[in-house]
Amino acid sequence: MYIYGFHSIEAAILNAPESINYVLINSSRHDKRQNHLLELIKIHNIEVNHVNNLDELVGTNKHQGVVAVINPKNTKLEFKDLIKDLDTKDNAIILILDGITDVHNFGAIIRSADCFGVQAIIIPKNNSASTSNPIIAKTSSGAINKLPIITVNNLSRAIEQLKEHGFWIAGTALTENSINLFEFKCNKKIVWVMGSEGTGMRRLISENCDYLVTIPMQGVTKSLNVSVATGVVLAYTRFSNIQQ
After folding, report:
1. Residues 35 and 135 occupy one common structural domain
2. What residue spans of 87-177 are helical by DSSP H?
3. Which of 77, 84, 101, 200 keeps 20 to 30 A from 216, CA to CA?
4. Residues contacting residue 98 through CB under 8 Å, at least 6 positions apart
5. Which of 18, 43, 70 is the last residue of a domain?
6. How far is CA 82 from CA 15, 85, 86, 87, 157, in A?
C-alpha cells in the first residue's frame, strides 16, 4: 500500500514512522521541500529510492514527486477488551460510523478522531469503507496506525453493551427532538454515532441513541460533510468535558 504527497508523507513519518517501508522520490525533483523531507527521512532511518515512473505506480500525476510504500499496522483491539479497558475511565469518547463508505471521509474522520482523543472507532462488518484502502491511509495522515478501529457484526448489539458499561449514546440527526450541540452537556463516557451522508443513521441505530443532536448552522447550506461534522462534535465534546 502507498500514500503520496508531501503533507501526507511528512505526517505519516511523524505519527507512525514504523509503518513506512521506504520512500520513492522522483529523480528529477530537487528543491527545498524535497530536501526537508529527505532530512526527515534520514532522522527516522527510512530507506529512500530515486525513481522516474511514479505516475505509473500510483495511477495519478498528483503525487508531487514523492510516494511512501507503507505497511499499515492498525492497532488491534477486540470489542470486549475495549469495554474492559474503558470501564474505569471517565470522559472516554468512542466513535461509531454507521455506513461511512466514502474513503476520503473515512480517512478524514480517523484523523479528527485521533486529534480529539477518541479511544476507538467502531464500524459494521458490512456497509463500510475498508480500512485497507490506501486512500484512507493517506487521508488519515498516519492516524490509522494509532487509533484502534474495531469491526463488529451488529452495531445495535454493540451499542447495547456500551450502555451496559456506562456509556451514553449520542447520534447526529436533524429532527424535531434534536438537541442543539452547543446546549448539549455530557460529562460522562459517551459514544458518538455518525451516519452516512445520504441517509444518516439507520432507524434501529437512531432509536438506540439516548440523545439526538444537531449542529446549528446559518446560511443557505443546511448540512455539513460528515467528516467536518464529526470534527465539530468531537472538538466540542472534548473541550466541554475538560471544562466540566
Report:
1. no
2. 103-115, 134-139, 155-164
3. 101
4. 124, 155, 193, 194, 195, 196, 201, 202, 205
5. 70
6. 22, 5, 6, 9, 15
Q: What is the CATH number of the domain that holds 48?
A: 3.30.1330.30
The answer to whether residues 48 and 87 belong to one domain is no
For position 244, what pLDDT does the model report?
Answer: 47
Please tell me the total count of domains within the chain: 2
The residue with cell 490506501 is 134
What is the Cα–Cα distance from 234 to 216, expressed in whole angstroms? 15
Task: Look up the domain containing 55 and give its range.
Answer: 2-70
| Tens of pLDDT, residues 21-79 | 899 998 887 888 888 999 999 999 999 998 888 888 777 787 888 988 877 655 567 88
pLDDT digits (tens, 9 = 90+) for 202-221: 999 999 999 999 999 887 77
480529539: which residue's cell? Answer: 116
